[in-house]
User: Fold these one by one.
Assistant:
Number 1:
Amino acid sequence: MDSLVRGRREYTENHIFYEGDIADKALLREIFKEQGDISSVIHLAAFISVPESVSYPHMYYKNNVSKGIQFFANLEEIGCKNIIFSSSASVYGNSKDIRVTENHPIAPESPYAKTKAMTERILRDYSIAYGMNVISLRYFNPIGADPEFRTGAFLENPSHILGILLNTLKSENKQMTITGVDWPTRDGSGIRDYIHIWDLAAAHVNAVLKIAGTQKEEGSFEVVNIGRGDGVTVRELVAAFEKAVGEKLDVKEGPPRDGDVAGAFAVCDKANEFLGWRAEFTIEQAIRDALIWEDKKKEILIG
Protein backbone atom coordinates (compact mmCIF):
# COMPACT_ATOMS: atom_id res chain seq x y z
CA MET A 1 0.00 0.00 0.00
CA ASP A 2 1.47 3.31 -1.09
CA SER A 3 0.06 6.70 -1.97
CA LEU A 4 2.90 7.13 -4.52
CA VAL A 5 3.28 10.73 -3.37
CA ARG A 6 7.00 9.99 -3.14
CA GLY A 7 7.18 6.36 -4.28
CA ARG A 8 7.60 4.86 -7.76
CA ARG A 9 4.89 2.92 -9.55
CA GLU A 10 7.53 0.87 -11.35
CA TYR A 11 8.46 -0.74 -8.03
CA THR A 12 4.91 -2.06 -7.55
CA GLU A 13 4.86 -4.11 -10.74
CA ASN A 14 4.39 -7.89 -10.26
CA HIS A 15 3.40 -7.32 -6.62
CA ILE A 16 0.03 -7.16 -4.90
CA PHE A 17 -0.47 -3.41 -4.71
CA TYR A 18 -3.07 -0.93 -3.48
CA GLU A 19 -2.67 2.76 -4.22
CA GLY A 20 -3.87 4.96 -1.40
CA ASP A 21 -3.17 6.78 1.84
CA ILE A 22 -2.46 4.98 5.10
CA ALA A 23 -5.20 7.03 6.82
CA ASP A 24 -7.84 5.66 4.41
CA LYS A 25 -9.89 3.36 6.63
CA ALA A 26 -12.06 1.99 3.83
CA LEU A 27 -9.04 1.01 1.73
CA LEU A 28 -7.36 -0.64 4.70
CA ARG A 29 -10.48 -2.71 5.36
CA GLU A 30 -10.59 -3.67 1.67
CA ILE A 31 -6.98 -4.89 1.82
CA PHE A 32 -7.61 -7.03 4.90
CA LYS A 33 -10.81 -8.44 3.39
CA GLU A 34 -9.25 -9.32 0.05
CA GLN A 35 -5.88 -10.56 1.27
CA GLY A 36 -7.11 -12.84 4.03
CA ASP A 37 -5.24 -13.34 7.27
CA ILE A 38 -2.66 -10.56 7.58
CA SER A 39 -0.86 -11.07 10.88
CA SER A 40 1.66 -8.22 10.82
CA VAL A 41 2.10 -4.80 9.22
CA ILE A 42 5.38 -3.06 8.36
CA HIS A 43 4.86 0.70 8.53
CA LEU A 44 7.38 2.62 6.39
CA ALA A 45 5.20 5.53 5.23
CA ALA A 46 6.90 8.84 6.04
CA PHE A 47 8.57 11.93 4.64
CA ILE A 48 12.26 11.65 5.51
CA SER A 49 14.24 14.76 4.58
CA VAL A 50 15.70 16.62 7.58
CA PRO A 51 16.14 19.99 5.77
CA GLU A 52 12.65 19.75 4.28
CA SER A 53 11.18 19.05 7.71
CA VAL A 54 12.80 22.20 9.07
CA SER A 55 11.23 24.26 6.27
CA TYR A 56 7.82 22.53 6.32
CA PRO A 57 7.20 21.11 9.81
CA HIS A 58 3.41 21.10 9.44
CA MET A 59 3.68 18.78 6.43
CA TYR A 60 5.86 16.40 8.44
CA TYR A 61 3.69 16.33 11.57
CA LYS A 62 0.57 15.80 9.50
CA ASN A 63 1.99 13.04 7.29
CA ASN A 64 4.26 11.24 9.74
CA VAL A 65 2.30 11.61 12.99
CA SER A 66 -1.37 12.45 12.39
CA LYS A 67 -1.88 9.93 9.62
CA GLY A 68 0.08 7.36 11.61
CA ILE A 69 -2.30 7.78 14.56
CA GLN A 70 -5.27 7.12 12.30
CA PHE A 71 -3.52 4.14 10.71
CA PHE A 72 -2.77 2.49 14.07
CA ALA A 73 -6.32 3.09 15.31
CA ASN A 74 -7.71 1.48 12.16
CA LEU A 75 -5.40 -1.51 12.54
CA GLU A 76 -6.51 -1.96 16.14
CA GLU A 77 -10.15 -1.83 15.11
CA ILE A 78 -9.56 -4.39 12.35
CA GLY A 79 -7.77 -6.63 14.83
CA CYS A 80 -4.20 -6.54 13.49
CA LYS A 81 -1.99 -5.97 16.54
CA ASN A 82 1.54 -6.69 15.23
CA ILE A 83 3.42 -3.66 13.90
CA ILE A 84 6.99 -3.21 12.69
CA PHE A 85 7.69 0.52 12.70
CA SER A 86 10.31 2.27 10.59
CA SER A 87 11.99 4.59 13.10
CA SER A 88 15.30 6.44 12.93
CA ALA A 89 18.57 6.88 14.77
CA SER A 90 17.89 10.61 14.51
CA VAL A 91 15.77 10.29 17.67
CA TYR A 92 19.05 10.25 19.64
CA GLY A 93 19.84 13.79 18.53
CA ASN A 94 23.22 15.42 19.02
CA SER A 95 24.61 12.79 21.34
CA LYS A 96 27.72 13.40 23.43
CA ASP A 97 28.50 9.69 23.09
CA ILE A 98 28.71 8.69 19.44
CA ARG A 99 28.16 5.01 20.38
CA VAL A 100 24.48 4.66 21.20
CA THR A 101 22.42 1.83 22.65
CA GLU A 102 18.64 1.64 22.68
CA ASN A 103 18.70 3.07 26.23
CA HIS A 104 20.41 6.27 25.10
CA PRO A 105 18.46 9.47 25.88
CA ILE A 106 15.93 10.54 23.26
CA ALA A 107 16.69 14.10 22.12
CA PRO A 108 15.49 14.66 18.53
CA GLU A 109 16.73 17.86 16.90
CA SER A 110 14.76 18.22 13.65
CA PRO A 111 11.00 18.08 13.07
CA TYR A 112 11.60 14.87 11.10
CA ALA A 113 13.35 13.23 14.05
CA LYS A 114 10.65 14.50 16.40
CA THR A 115 7.96 12.81 14.30
CA LYS A 116 9.75 9.50 14.74
CA ALA A 117 10.17 9.98 18.51
CA MET A 118 6.52 11.02 18.85
CA THR A 119 5.29 8.01 16.92
CA GLU A 120 7.35 5.68 19.08
CA ARG A 121 5.76 7.23 22.18
CA ILE A 122 2.29 6.76 20.67
CA LEU A 123 2.98 3.13 19.80
CA ARG A 124 4.33 2.44 23.28
CA ASP A 125 1.07 3.76 24.75
CA TYR A 126 -0.97 1.76 22.23
CA SER A 127 0.89 -1.43 23.18
CA ILE A 128 -0.15 -0.90 26.81
CA ALA A 129 -3.73 0.22 26.18
CA TYR A 130 -4.69 -2.00 23.24
CA GLY A 131 -2.41 -5.02 23.55
CA MET A 132 -0.46 -4.20 20.39
CA ASN A 133 2.92 -5.84 19.76
CA VAL A 134 5.40 -3.35 18.33
CA ILE A 135 9.03 -3.57 17.23
CA SER A 136 10.45 -0.17 16.36
CA LEU A 137 13.54 -0.43 14.17
CA ARG A 138 15.79 2.59 14.60
CA TYR A 139 17.55 2.74 11.23
CA PHE A 140 20.91 4.33 10.98
CA ASN A 141 21.93 5.36 7.42
CA PRO A 142 20.83 3.04 4.60
CA ILE A 143 22.91 3.14 1.42
CA GLY A 144 23.42 0.91 -1.61
CA ALA A 145 20.73 -0.76 -3.71
CA ASP A 146 18.97 -4.08 -4.12
CA PRO A 147 21.84 -6.48 -5.03
CA GLU A 148 19.67 -7.86 -7.84
CA PHE A 149 19.15 -4.27 -9.08
CA ARG A 150 15.37 -4.29 -9.21
CA THR A 151 15.05 -1.19 -7.00
CA GLY A 152 17.19 1.58 -5.62
CA ALA A 153 17.36 5.29 -4.88
CA PHE A 154 15.57 7.47 -7.40
CA LEU A 155 15.38 11.09 -6.18
CA GLU A 156 17.02 13.57 -8.56
CA ASN A 157 18.18 15.79 -5.70
CA PRO A 158 18.89 13.47 -2.77
CA SER A 159 19.83 14.82 0.65
CA HIS A 160 21.80 11.73 1.73
CA ILE A 161 25.55 11.61 1.24
CA LEU A 162 25.87 8.71 -1.22
CA GLY A 163 23.23 10.18 -3.51
CA ILE A 164 25.08 13.50 -3.40
CA LEU A 165 28.33 11.74 -4.29
CA LEU A 166 26.71 10.00 -7.26
CA ASN A 167 25.32 13.29 -8.55
CA THR A 168 28.71 14.93 -8.01
CA LEU A 169 30.36 12.25 -10.13
CA LYS A 170 27.99 13.06 -13.01
CA SER A 171 28.42 16.82 -12.69
CA GLU A 172 30.72 18.84 -14.94
CA ASN A 173 32.96 20.22 -12.20
CA LYS A 174 32.68 17.20 -9.88
CA GLN A 175 32.37 19.56 -6.92
CA MET A 176 30.68 18.73 -3.64
CA THR A 177 30.52 20.34 -0.21
CA ILE A 178 30.95 18.56 3.10
CA THR A 179 28.36 20.30 5.28
CA GLY A 180 29.82 20.59 8.76
CA VAL A 181 33.55 20.16 9.39
CA ASP A 182 33.85 21.20 13.05
CA TRP A 183 32.06 18.33 14.70
CA PRO A 184 33.79 16.53 17.63
CA THR A 185 34.84 13.56 15.48
CA ARG A 186 38.24 12.21 14.44
CA ASP A 187 38.38 14.39 11.30
CA GLY A 188 35.76 17.07 12.02
CA SER A 189 33.17 15.77 9.55
CA GLY A 190 29.96 14.12 10.65
CA ILE A 191 30.05 10.45 11.60
CA ARG A 192 27.38 7.98 10.60
CA ASP A 193 26.63 4.29 10.72
CA TYR A 194 26.07 3.33 7.08
CA ILE A 195 24.17 0.11 6.43
CA HIS A 196 23.48 -1.68 3.16
CA ILE A 197 19.79 -1.49 2.27
CA TRP A 198 19.65 -5.27 1.82
CA ASP A 199 20.83 -5.81 5.40
CA LEU A 200 18.09 -3.40 6.50
CA ALA A 201 15.50 -5.38 4.51
CA ALA A 202 16.67 -8.60 6.18
CA ALA A 203 16.20 -6.99 9.60
CA HIS A 204 12.52 -6.47 8.76
CA VAL A 205 12.09 -10.14 7.88
CA ASN A 206 13.63 -11.14 11.22
CA ALA A 207 11.42 -8.63 13.04
CA VAL A 208 8.24 -10.02 11.45
CA LEU A 209 9.24 -13.57 12.40
CA LYS A 210 10.09 -12.47 15.92
CA ILE A 211 6.85 -10.57 16.54
CA ALA A 212 4.77 -13.44 15.19
CA GLY A 213 6.39 -15.80 17.71
CA THR A 214 6.29 -13.61 20.81
CA GLN A 215 2.77 -12.21 20.99
CA LYS A 216 1.58 -11.28 24.46
CA GLU A 217 -1.97 -10.69 25.67
CA GLU A 218 -0.89 -7.46 27.34
CA GLY A 219 1.05 -6.25 24.31
CA SER A 220 4.76 -5.50 23.95
CA PHE A 221 7.01 -2.71 22.74
CA GLU A 222 10.66 -3.05 21.75
CA VAL A 223 13.11 -0.68 20.09
CA VAL A 224 16.10 -2.07 18.18
CA ASN A 225 19.09 -0.30 16.63
CA ILE A 226 19.73 -1.39 13.04
CA GLY A 227 23.21 -0.48 11.80
CA ARG A 228 26.59 -1.99 11.09
CA GLY A 229 27.86 -1.06 14.53
CA ASP A 230 30.83 0.97 13.36
CA GLY A 231 31.27 4.63 12.50
CA VAL A 232 32.37 6.11 9.18
CA THR A 233 32.96 9.85 8.82
CA VAL A 234 31.82 11.78 5.77
CA ARG A 235 35.45 12.32 4.75
CA GLU A 236 36.11 8.57 5.02
CA LEU A 237 33.04 7.76 2.94
CA VAL A 238 34.12 10.26 0.29
CA ALA A 239 37.57 8.63 0.20
CA ALA A 240 36.01 5.16 -0.16
CA PHE A 241 33.80 6.46 -2.98
CA GLU A 242 36.74 8.04 -4.81
CA LYS A 243 38.63 4.75 -4.54
CA ALA A 244 35.63 2.80 -5.92
CA VAL A 245 35.21 5.07 -8.96
CA GLY A 246 38.91 5.74 -9.52
CA GLU A 247 38.41 9.52 -9.62
CA LYS A 248 39.05 12.46 -7.33
CA LEU A 249 36.21 14.86 -6.54
CA ASP A 250 36.55 18.58 -5.89
CA VAL A 251 35.58 18.57 -2.21
CA LYS A 252 34.71 21.87 -0.51
CA GLU A 253 33.82 22.60 3.10
CA GLY A 254 30.72 24.39 4.36
CA PRO A 255 28.53 24.97 7.42
CA PRO A 256 26.12 22.29 8.63
CA ARG A 257 22.59 22.20 7.27
CA ASP A 258 19.64 23.11 9.48
CA GLY A 259 18.86 20.18 11.74
CA ASP A 260 22.19 18.40 11.22
CA VAL A 261 24.00 16.77 14.13
CA ALA A 262 27.49 15.33 14.62
CA GLY A 263 26.08 11.85 14.21
CA ALA A 264 26.44 8.52 15.92
CA PHE A 265 26.82 4.83 15.29
CA ALA A 266 24.90 1.91 16.69
CA VAL A 267 25.57 -0.59 19.39
CA CYS A 268 23.79 -3.55 17.78
CA ASP A 269 23.91 -6.14 20.54
CA LYS A 270 20.11 -6.19 20.88
CA ALA A 271 19.62 -6.73 17.14
CA ASN A 272 22.04 -9.64 17.32
CA GLU A 273 20.43 -11.23 20.38
CA PHE A 274 16.74 -10.29 20.14
CA LEU A 275 16.29 -10.51 16.36
CA GLY A 276 19.10 -12.91 15.52
CA TRP A 277 20.31 -10.37 12.95
CA ARG A 278 23.60 -8.74 12.06
CA ALA A 279 24.81 -6.71 9.10
CA GLU A 280 26.72 -8.70 6.48
CA PHE A 281 27.47 -6.27 3.65
CA THR A 282 30.47 -3.92 3.71
CA ILE A 283 30.52 -0.21 2.95
CA GLU A 284 32.47 -0.99 -0.23
CA GLN A 285 29.73 -3.38 -1.38
CA ALA A 286 27.09 -0.74 -0.74
CA ILE A 287 28.99 1.81 -2.82
CA ARG A 288 29.51 -0.73 -5.60
CA ASP A 289 25.80 -1.62 -5.71
CA ALA A 290 24.80 2.05 -5.72
CA LEU A 291 27.13 2.69 -8.67
CA ILE A 292 25.71 -0.24 -10.66
CA TRP A 293 22.15 0.83 -9.87
CA GLU A 294 22.88 4.35 -11.08
CA ASP A 295 23.30 2.91 -14.59
CA LYS A 296 20.71 0.15 -14.27
CA LYS A 297 17.85 2.40 -13.13
CA LYS A 298 17.62 3.97 -16.60
CA GLU A 299 16.19 0.65 -17.82
CA ILE A 300 13.59 0.49 -15.03
CA LEU A 301 12.41 4.01 -14.21
CA ILE A 302 10.16 5.79 -16.68
CA GLY A 303 10.56 9.57 -16.73
Number 2:
Amino acid sequence: MGKAELKTKPTAVSAADFIAGLPDARRREEAAVIDVMHRRVTGLEPKLWGPSIIGYGSYSYKYDSGREGTMCRAGFSPRKAAMTLYLMGNYCDRQAEVDDLFARLGKHKTGKSCLYISKLGDVDMAVLERLVAISWQVMNERYPA
Protein backbone atom coordinates (compact mmCIF):
# COMPACT_ATOMS: atom_id res chain seq x y z
CA MET A 1 0.00 0.00 0.00
CA GLY A 2 2.85 2.40 0.87
CA LYS A 3 2.42 6.08 1.56
CA ALA A 4 -0.99 7.51 0.88
CA GLU A 5 -1.19 11.22 0.19
CA LEU A 6 -1.99 12.70 3.58
CA LYS A 7 -3.94 15.92 3.90
CA THR A 8 -2.40 16.65 7.27
CA LYS A 9 1.20 17.65 6.74
CA PRO A 10 3.38 20.59 7.73
CA THR A 11 2.58 23.85 5.98
CA ALA A 12 4.45 27.12 5.47
CA VAL A 13 1.92 29.03 7.59
CA SER A 14 3.34 30.11 10.94
CA ALA A 15 1.60 28.69 14.00
CA ALA A 16 1.78 32.14 15.63
CA ASP A 17 0.01 33.73 12.64
CA PHE A 18 -2.63 30.98 12.72
CA ILE A 19 -3.27 31.56 16.44
CA ALA A 20 -3.37 35.34 15.97
CA GLY A 21 -5.95 34.89 13.21
CA LEU A 22 -8.40 32.83 15.26
CA PRO A 23 -11.72 34.72 15.23
CA ASP A 24 -12.69 33.98 18.85
CA ALA A 25 -10.72 35.97 21.45
CA ARG A 26 -11.01 33.30 24.18
CA ARG A 27 -9.88 30.56 21.80
CA ARG A 28 -6.91 32.75 20.73
CA GLU A 29 -5.89 33.24 24.37
CA GLU A 30 -6.33 29.56 25.18
CA ALA A 31 -4.37 28.49 22.09
CA ALA A 32 -1.49 30.73 23.18
CA VAL A 33 -1.51 29.07 26.64
CA ILE A 34 -1.56 25.55 25.15
CA ASP A 35 1.22 26.52 22.72
CA VAL A 36 3.44 27.69 25.60
CA MET A 37 2.69 24.44 27.46
CA HIS A 38 3.64 22.30 24.45
CA ARG A 39 6.83 24.30 23.86
CA ARG A 40 7.76 23.77 27.53
CA VAL A 41 7.08 20.01 27.37
CA THR A 42 8.63 19.33 23.96
CA GLY A 43 11.33 22.00 23.74
CA LEU A 44 10.26 22.53 20.11
CA GLU A 45 8.83 25.32 17.98
CA PRO A 46 5.48 24.42 16.44
CA LYS A 47 4.53 23.98 12.82
CA LEU A 48 1.04 24.24 11.39
CA TRP A 49 -0.05 20.81 10.12
CA GLY A 50 -2.85 20.98 7.60
CA PRO A 51 -5.30 23.82 8.02
CA SER A 52 -5.67 23.75 11.81
CA ILE A 53 -3.33 21.48 13.81
CA ILE A 54 -0.46 23.07 15.70
CA GLY A 55 2.12 20.31 15.94
CA TYR A 56 5.45 19.70 17.65
CA GLY A 57 8.01 17.32 16.24
CA SER A 58 7.10 14.51 13.88
CA TYR A 59 7.25 10.74 13.59
CA SER A 60 6.84 8.21 10.84
CA TYR A 61 4.53 5.26 11.30
CA LYS A 62 3.66 2.11 9.42
CA TYR A 63 0.54 0.09 10.12
CA ASP A 64 0.33 -3.69 9.76
CA SER A 65 -1.76 -3.01 6.64
CA GLY A 66 1.32 -1.41 5.06
CA ARG A 67 -0.05 2.12 5.20
CA GLU A 68 2.64 4.64 6.15
CA GLY A 69 2.68 8.28 7.04
CA THR A 70 4.21 11.10 9.01
CA MET A 71 2.41 13.09 11.68
CA CYS A 72 3.24 15.48 14.49
CA ARG A 73 4.40 13.84 17.75
CA ALA A 74 2.29 16.18 19.85
CA GLY A 75 -0.24 18.79 18.95
CA PHE A 76 -3.54 20.52 19.38
CA SER A 77 -6.22 22.23 17.37
CA PRO A 78 -8.12 25.26 18.70
CA ARG A 79 -11.48 24.34 17.21
CA LYS A 80 -14.65 26.35 17.67
CA ALA A 81 -16.48 23.66 19.66
CA ALA A 82 -13.53 22.58 21.82
CA MET A 83 -9.79 22.80 22.27
CA THR A 84 -8.61 19.45 20.91
CA LEU A 85 -5.35 18.00 22.21
CA TYR A 86 -3.84 14.92 20.57
CA LEU A 87 -2.66 12.57 23.32
CA MET A 88 -1.25 9.06 23.15
CA GLY A 89 -0.61 8.80 26.90
CA ASN A 90 -3.72 6.73 27.54
CA TYR A 91 -2.44 3.91 25.31
CA CYS A 92 0.57 2.93 27.36
CA ASP A 93 1.90 1.06 30.37
CA ARG A 94 1.11 4.08 32.55
CA GLN A 95 -2.64 3.39 32.51
CA ALA A 96 -3.21 3.75 36.28
CA GLU A 97 -1.45 7.13 36.41
CA VAL A 98 -3.24 8.35 33.30
CA ASP A 99 -6.64 7.20 34.59
CA ASP A 100 -5.98 9.10 37.83
CA LEU A 101 -4.96 12.23 35.89
CA PHE A 102 -8.08 12.13 33.72
CA ALA A 103 -10.19 11.71 36.89
CA ARG A 104 -8.60 14.86 38.36
CA LEU A 105 -8.46 16.90 35.13
CA GLY A 106 -11.86 18.54 35.31
CA LYS A 107 -14.54 18.92 32.67
CA HIS A 108 -13.49 17.20 29.44
CA LYS A 109 -14.39 14.57 26.86
CA THR A 110 -12.13 12.05 25.18
CA GLY A 111 -12.02 10.28 21.83
CA LYS A 112 -9.67 7.60 20.56
CA SER A 113 -6.56 9.76 20.93
CA CYS A 114 -8.15 13.17 21.44
CA LEU A 115 -8.91 15.21 24.51
CA TYR A 116 -11.66 17.80 24.10
CA ILE A 117 -11.86 20.79 26.45
CA SER A 118 -14.57 23.42 26.04
CA LYS A 119 -12.87 25.98 28.33
CA LEU A 120 -9.40 25.84 29.86
CA GLY A 121 -10.88 27.37 33.02
CA ASP A 122 -12.73 24.07 33.53
CA VAL A 123 -9.55 22.00 33.89
CA ASP A 124 -6.54 21.73 36.19
CA MET A 125 -3.68 23.06 34.07
CA ALA A 126 -0.97 21.17 36.01
CA VAL A 127 -2.83 17.90 35.39
CA LEU A 128 -3.24 18.81 31.71
CA GLU A 129 0.48 19.51 31.37
CA ARG A 130 1.29 16.16 32.99
CA LEU A 131 -0.96 14.40 30.45
CA VAL A 132 0.79 16.21 27.59
CA ALA A 133 4.19 15.26 29.06
CA ILE A 134 3.26 11.57 29.39
CA SER A 135 1.98 11.53 25.83
CA TRP A 136 5.23 13.13 24.64
CA GLN A 137 7.30 10.54 26.55
CA VAL A 138 5.26 7.66 25.15
CA MET A 139 5.62 8.93 21.58
CA ASN A 140 9.39 9.30 22.02
CA GLU A 141 9.61 5.75 23.40
CA ARG A 142 7.45 4.25 20.64
CA TYR A 143 9.01 6.23 17.80
CA PRO A 144 12.63 7.06 18.68
CA ALA A 145 14.02 9.94 16.63
